[in-house]
Amino acid sequence: MSWLRTFWASTVGKKTVMAVTGIMLVGFVVAHMLGNLQMFIGAEAMNKYAALLKSTGELLWVARAGLLVAAALHITAAYQLTMINRAARPEGYAKQEPQVSTLASRTMRLGGVILAAFIIFHLGHFTTGTFHPAFSETGVYGNVILGLRSPLVAGFYVLAMAALGLHLFHGAWAGVRTLGLRKRSADPMYRRLSMGLAIVVWAGFTAIPVAVLLGILN
Amino acid sequence: MSATHATGKGMTLTLHVWRQAGPNAAGRIVDYPAPDISPDMSFLEMLDVVNERLIAKGEEPIAFDHDCREGICGSCGLMINGSAHGPMKLTTACQLHMRSFKDGDDIWIEPWRAKAFPVIKDLVVDRGAFDRIIQAGGYISAPTGTPQDANALPIPKADADLAMDNAACIGCGACVAACPNASASLFTAAKITHLGSLPQGQPERDRRALAMVAQMDEEGFGGCTLHGECQEACPKGISIDAIMQMNRDFVRASATAVQAKEWSGAA
Ligand code: HEM
Ligand code: SF4
Ligand code: FES
Question: Which of A59, B127, B150, B190 has its CA 20 to 30 A from that of A143?
Fold first, then answer.
């Protein structure tokens, strides 16, 4: 297993792990968003969907374990790489003009921290009910409506989803490139696909807390 | 003193230059007025003029690195107004001309900043880390002697072009300087792509990727987060596509567990 240690020790190895786990999380997030949009179909559809997920039993736990491991690896690699990258420039410039880096690429770490905080809150909110005012094991639709009526909580969801959109805009593009899965291109900075993905995911998730606040969903 | 350069229609600039007496001395930005600068001068000629004036006044001239002054040696790395090699794309500092600036401009001049590129004096940094990355694997082992017939080894045009594009790297370090993580990924990847695209580079391809990446990390450069700043700063137009190639080669070499074991055992 010495190759595995060599692999993880290197910045390229860690970045590869980040890309693989990141792409897994993107897959989850897209599926999760599509599932959530059933809120707009109605309570019955949403609750049935949630019951269906829960009825998969062990499969659900396998998926949860996979996501947890992916998130843990993603965060560990991110943290370690951040420390390495900070140490690589002990003295900064008096003047530095970013040329092509984006707001998204420069806020990956901040966005990641917001998302991590969100995930902890979110699991306690809708999965375990710990942070929920009136949690019901079977009434997912009602949980979401009641849980998002507080403007503070809904605001946090909206903020976190903005962070998610930015994270995806850079991450979806970068992850594919880190793994070397793109063809050579005259314009490697081109990322309209990840822009589209980011907007769809951001809008799809944000629609729910906004609709609850506006009373469209109740 | 500077009479030979005076044109009568010179610009008046204010320079803000990083001055540092030696590797362990504390440095600071010092302001210098630079009157009567011809727009036809190169950036380095402008510094020469400023230095002549400093010497005439009995002051220590500004140390900066340079050699070819024609954009091919990679010595002249300077952070100019916050961008590596200054405002012109695909241009080294020595090929930059003062007509890129306006009369009355403030110009900030700083050395490359990276832990792996320690400042020697003023604007001069030690880029020995790049040499050590090349030593780790940036070569091929070919028997020397009579060269073989040029046509004995057919190479597809696309591969030859790719190798040539990446061989254009002059090791200037602008990619490191511009990268928010001070990563040497573009430099390392250019060499890996250059040699890995040619048949002569295949025997050592796996070892090269592992060894060069390991040395890059060892030197204290940061990792790639694909900001893209390196590609933008590179005077030779090296594409971040090279980094895809480096990562692919590295992953493939790591996955070839037997070879990797051999290598990490040797390292
Ligand atoms: C406004 C946006 C979101 C809403 C309304 C929402 C809603 C929900 C709901 C209702 C559940 C519980 C499903 C159930 O147990 O039946 C859930 C679970 C979960 N959500 Fe979200 N979610 C949102 C965004 C996100 C985002 C962006 C992420 C991750 C980046 C995320 C990660 C998770 C995870 C990890 C679970 C747990 C899955 C499991 O229990 O296996 N959610 N979400
Ligand atoms: S990749 Fe470009 S910027 Fe980096 S050292 Fe080579 S020539 Fe300079
Ligand atoms: S002095 Fe040689 S590249 Fe500028």
Answer: A59
* Radius of gyration of chain A measured on its C-alpha atoms: 19
* Residue A40: φ, ψ to 5°: -75, -15
The Cα–Cα gap between A51 and A139 comes to 9
The pair of structure tokens assigned to A216 is 């469209």
Question: By C-alpha distance, which of B213, B237, B32 is closest to B123?
Answer: B32
Pocket test for ligand 2, best of B130, B234, B241 (most atoms within 8 A of CB): B234
Residue A78 exposure: Cα atoms within 13 Å on the Cβ side: 23
Query: Do B214 and B166 touch, CB atoms closer than 8 A?
Result: no
What DSSP line would sit under A187-202, residue for residue? -TT--HHHHHHHHHHH
Residue A173 lies in a domain: yes
* Ligand 1 neighbourhood includes A17 CB (under 6 angstroms): no
Task: List pocket residues of ligand 3, CB cut-off 6 Å.
Answer: B 66-69, 71-76, 92-94
As for the ipTM of the complex, it is 0.95
DSSP classification of residue A37: G
Question: What's the whole-model pTM score?
Answer: 0.91
User: Hey, what domains does chain B have and what are their CATH numbers?
Assistant: 11-121 (3.10.20.30), 127-142+153-266 (1.10.1060.10)
Give the pLDDT confidence of A49-63 residue by residue, as tens digits: 999 999 998 999 999
A97 inside domain: no
CB contact at 8 A, B153 and B203:
no
Looking at the structure of chain A, the number of domains it has is 1
